Amino acid sequence: MASIARGSARGSAQAVRSFLYFGKASKQLICTRGCRFASSDAAPAPQRIIPAPRLDYRGVSENIVYKSTNALNRKAPIPSDAMQSVARAYTELKSLYHALNAQRNARSVVGERIRRSAEENNTEARDVALAEALKIKEEILRLEPALLSVEENLLALALAIPNDTHPSSPLGPESAAVTLSTHGPELIPATPERDHVTIARKFGLVDFEGAAIVTGSSWYYLMNEAALLEMALTNYALSIAVKHGFTPVTTPDVVRSDVASRCGFQPRDNPLSPASQVYHINSKSQDLILSATSEIPLGGMFANKIFTEMALPLKVVGLGRAFRAEAGARGADTRGLYRVHQFTKVELFMVTKPEDSEKMMEDMRAIQTAILNGLGLPFRVLDMPSEELGASAYRKYDMEVWMPGRGAWGEVSSLSNCTDYQSRRLHIRYETHSRTATKPTAFTHTLNGTAAAIPRLIIALLENGATFDEQGELVGIALPEALRPFWIGGSSRTIIQWQ
Question: Per UniProt, where does ATP bind (predicted)?
Answer without folding.
Answer: 324-326, 340-343, 411-414
